[in-house]
Amino acid sequence: MDWLDPHILWPIFGSVVAGAVIGFEREYRSSPAGFRTHILVSLSSALLMLAAVHQIRWLTDTPHEIIRIDPVRMAHGILTGIGFLGAGVIFRQGFNIRGLTTAASLWITSSLGILFGVGFYALAVIGTVATVAVLAAVGLTESRLPQRSFVDVVVRFRRGAGVGIERYRAALAAEGLKPGPISVELDEEAASFSASVEKFTERQAAALAAALSADPEVLGLKVLPHER
Question: Within 10 A of 113 (CB to CB), how many other CB atoms are there?
Fold first, then answer.
């Protein structure tokens, strides 16, 4: 095996660079999977594809006429495995699902590693540039595109007479807030009510907190902005 074979070195180099560029952007945004994770995902995908494409080099004891090179099966296995890795960075917080963008970035980083591994450099480079452009454009799209903003408002009341959905709804209505479908959770000491509210401002948050602080039956308030 030639250690300086460009057909081996260039795919490895390209996959590392692609993973590093995408990982740097994710690291900058403090995502669950950052710089090193994306490099390792891209590099591992490229190495496995190199092993599949050049398997005739390591199957030295096998007659060449019975070797069937099928990189597509390796690519399918890689992307299936990345699905489990991506699932590990997706989690639920309140009504929000977080980590979807990071999972997608891991998936496409693996795809880029596969492209480098099979030697499809042009498409891999274009894909890397397009991926970084999409991820970096988040700030621009958030400032330019019309968006509906929501927050989840959770209020915990002390269990007792007079505590119900209508009391929760009235507390929000006093600040001009109209909740969506209301979820209820009961335990031995408290009754928790939660709902998504649109166009919730900091002024309304402060006013709601002040009003509920004066209510002796209120045990807690939590406001969770939806992830964009």
Answer: 33
Residue carrying the six token digits 């007792």: 160
Answering whether pTM is above 0.70, one says no
CA atoms within 13 A on the CB side of 163: 20
Query: How far, rounded to the nearest angstrom, does the alpha carbon of residue 127 sit from its chain's CA centroid?
Result: 19
CA distances from 195 to 95, 145, 153, 172 (A): 9, 25, 6, 10
Look at the block and give the residue holding tokens 């002796």: 216
Which of 112, 144, 176 is a domain's end point?
Answer: 144
The three-class DSSP label of residue 147 is coil
Q: Which of 6-20, 46-60, 74-88, 116-130 has the lowest mean pLDDT?
A: 46-60
Give the integer Cα–Cα distance in Å for 15 and 43: 5
**What residue type is 176 in one-letter code?**
G
- Please tell me whether residues 174 and 128 are part of one structural domain: no
| CB distance 196 to 179 below 8 Å | yes
